[in-house]
Amino acid sequence: MSESLQLNAPVVVVDDDDAVRAAIGMLLQASNIAYRAYPGAREFLDAQGWLDAACLVLDVKMPVMNGLELLKEIRSRGIALPVIVMTGHGDVPMAVTAMKLGAYDFVEKPFEESHVLRLIGEAAANVVQARDVQSAQAERARAEHAAAAGRVASLTPREREVFELVTAGKLNKVIAYDLGLSARTVEIHRARVMEKTGAKSLSELVRIKVALEAEATG
Fold it and tell me: In sequence order, what DSSP letters do the residues of the chain get, joined into one string?
């Protein structure tokens, strides 16, 4: 088990899956992290679950109000709470949208415990007491773009195609079909993309993509 994080506020978990809430709760308790959990977005909003929270761990697919709708709602209220979104297999496009809305990062289920704890620690350390969350994240976005632009520029045309399709949430076999390549060739290109960009995970690669798009539209 990873070493305990020292957080001065509870982590808030919003997920309609009882088993997932229980699993994350046990992980946080084992790491001596206080937490609160809600089975849905409405319960979270009605209880004002963001008050005094360190960060929010949020599932993107929930009934009534999904995770993206909840993220939009808390941002519209000027709440700059760091948000980590959880996605199921094939939900990468939703995670990309969440990051464009200001989510700190995302994790794919099933996830490694140590990875989730690391993200929670990083997100909690970046709590910003600001009404305008976009301006609060502007400096981070500029720094990420400066680093990402040079790395992406080093990609070959084919690697850039793979980069665009991977960060759009497409599976290797789909990319292979779209580009007329073998699955093995796509795997090689994808590995080179990860190496050249310095991304250690899909979420880091998506963050690079989001940073580039933010600068292009800014």
Answer: -PPPP--SS-EEEE-S-HHHHHHHHHHHHHTT--EEEESSHHHHHHTTTTTT-SEEEEES--SSS-HHHHHHHHHHTT----EEEEE-TT-HHHHHHHHHTT--EEEESS--HHHHHHHHHHHHHT----S-HHHHHHHHHHHHHHHHHHHHHTS-HHHHHHHHHHTTT--HHHHHHHHT--HHHHHHHHHHHHHHHT-SSHHHHHHHHHHHHHHHH-
Q: Mean pLDDT throughout 114-138?
A: 67
**In CATH, what is the architecture of 134-217?**
Orthogonal Bundle (1.10)
Parallel/antiparallel/unpaired status of strands 55-59 and 35-38 = unpaired
Do residues 167 and 205 touch, judged by C-beta distance below 8 A? yes
With a cut of 60, say whether residue 104 has pLDDT above it: yes
Task: Grade residue 144 by pLDDT with cuts at 50, 70 and 90.
Answer: low
Q: Is the peptide bond before 110 cis (omega within 30 degrees of 0)?
A: yes
Mean pLDDT score of the chain, rounded to an integer? 84
Of 23, 109, 114, 104, nearest to 59 by C-alpha is 109
Q: What percent of the chain has pLDDT over 70?
A: 84
Q: What percent of the chain has pLDDT over 90?
A: 42
Q: What's the CATH architecture for 11-131?
A: 3-Layer(aba) Sandwich (3.40)
